[in-house]
């Protein structure tokens, strides 16, 4: 089975068809009732809001429901599905394979493009979408329209000093993560929000926790431009040498 564009995983992570990874509630056991589900009444109220897909247990035993809760209706389910053809390793669950896949394929023509556009190519950055790319580039102060290959080639040459102890190497990595490491750790931060800003327990309009986490995407004082694919990229400072001609939009 597969959810959206990724394999079904009983974890709080939902891979979305557009790339972004967001928290989602997958497993929820509650008292249930025989399907079909009534649209009103006390039985209906026992189910969580936005439970767009429900599996019911059969007797004997207590009546339970396994519900997929998705306020924004981004997810979908494919029976027997797997990753879409051509998608690379998951940035969250397959980090080492993801990193290797990027660095060994830098000759691919996608890396001739600006780094902000390359980050949306799911062959190499499976799970990175619009808000994640903005947050990752902002933290590293990388102009979004720098050539992707020039940004990433530096990671091939970077090796920690052999004179450092293991603890020093770990500390240096945590204090100075590179772009590919942030492609893993930044989505992980969103998952660790525990669904806040997305979950029904906060209310449909309550995105306070998620907005508090954002540093760049859609934030006051940031600039924005449309990339070559028509997607808006948010950033601060110089957009980089490959920026499209035209005025910057400021919030």
Descriptors:
251 residues, Helicase, Ruva Protein, domain 3, 3-stranded antiparallel β-sheet, 11 strands, alpha+beta, 15% strand, disordered N terminus
Task: Summarize, please.
With 251 residues, the chain is of the alpha+beta class. It contains eight helices and eleven strands.
How would you sum up this structure, described in words?
It comes from Lynx pardinus (Iberian lynx). Residues 93-178 form the Formamidopyrimidine-DNA glycosylase H2TH DNA-binding domain. GO terms for molecular function: damaged DNA binding; DNA N-glycosylase activity; DNA-(apurinic or apyrimidinic site) endonuclease activity; zinc ion binding. Residues 1-19 form the signal peptide. Pfam families: Neil1-DNA_bind. It is a single chain. The chain has 251 residues and is of the alpha+beta class. It has a domain at 95-250: Helicase, Ruva Protein, domain 3, CATH 1.10.8. Helix content is 27%, strand content 15%. The protein has 8 helices and 11 strands. The chain has helices at residues 42-46, 95-103, 115-118, 130-140, 148-157, 166-175, 179-191, 208-213, and strands at residues 2-3, 6-7, 13-15, 21-23, 29-31, 51-56, 64-69, 77-78, 223-226, 232-235, 249-250. The strands form 4 sheets. Strands 2-1-8 form a 3-stranded antiparallel sheet, with no helix packed on it. A 3-stranded antiparallel sheet has the order 5-7-6, with no helix packed on it. The protein has a 3-stranded antiparallel sheet with strand order 10-9-11. The protein is globular and about 65 Å long. The relative contact order is 0.15. Residues 1-19 and 21-42 have low confidence and may be disordered.
């Amino acid at each position: 089975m597969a959810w959206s564009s990724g394999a079904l995983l009983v974890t709080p992570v939902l891979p979305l068809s557009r790339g972004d990874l967001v928290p989602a509630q997958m497993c929820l056991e509650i008292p249930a009732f025989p399907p079909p589900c009534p649209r009103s009444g006390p039985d209906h109220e026992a189910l969580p809001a936005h439970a767009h897909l429900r599996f019911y247990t059969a007797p004997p035993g207590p009546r339970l429901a396994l519900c997929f809760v998705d306020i924004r209706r981004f997810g979908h389910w494919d029976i027997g599905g797997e990753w879409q053809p051509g998608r690379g390793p998951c940035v969250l669950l397959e980090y080492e394979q993801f990193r290797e896949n990027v660095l060994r394929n830098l000759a691919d023509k996608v890396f001739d493009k600006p780094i902000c556009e390359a980050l949306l190519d799911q062959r190499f950055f499976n799970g990175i979408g619009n808000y994640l790319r903005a947050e990752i580039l902002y933290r590293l102060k990388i102009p979004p329209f720098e050539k992707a290959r020039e940004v990433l080639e530096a990671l091939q040459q970077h090796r920690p000093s052999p004179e450092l102890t293991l603890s020093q190497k770990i500390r240096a990595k945590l204090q100075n993560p590179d772009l590919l490491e942030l492609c893993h750790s930044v989505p992980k931060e969103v998952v660790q929000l525990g669904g806040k800003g997305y979950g029904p327990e906060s209310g449909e309009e309550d995105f306070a926790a998620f907005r508090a986490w954002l540093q760049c995407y859609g934030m006051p004082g940031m600039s924005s431009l449309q990339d070559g694919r028509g997607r808006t990229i948010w950033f601060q400072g110089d957009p980089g040498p490959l920026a499209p001609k035209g005025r910057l939009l400021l919030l």
